[in-house]
Structure prediction request, 113 residues.
Amino acid sequence: EVNLEAFDTLVPRTSLLHRSCALTWPGMKSLFDMAYTGCSAYKPFPERKVTSAVQKMVDSGTFAYVSEGNEYYEIVRSFVRDWLSKAGNEVTDSFATNFYYAMKEASKGQAYT
Prediction:
């Protein structure tokens, strides 16, 4: 995976990132640990909080990331719920359960899991 390769190149103690910023190796490690455990990537999109300034842009239609993100979330949620209600035994087949457990494993230890 590209992101893992980039991480392995930039982050190890003997690499570039902590040498190019004002962080010690332990400080950078602490920062990455905090970013992982505080990650809310799996938090449902409509539950994410935005600042009042961002909300003003959303309300005026000038910040599509939030409004379209909420719309997309509802599309996917409706699709998944519909599939779950009609899929029968496929809901628990090896493909579905492997996907579920892979997502569960990938998000283990994060803030919203």
Observations:
- Residues 95 and 101 are 10 Å apart (CA to CA).
- Residues 64-86 form the longest helix (23 residues).
- The chain has a mean pLDDT of 87.
- The radius of gyration is 19 Å.
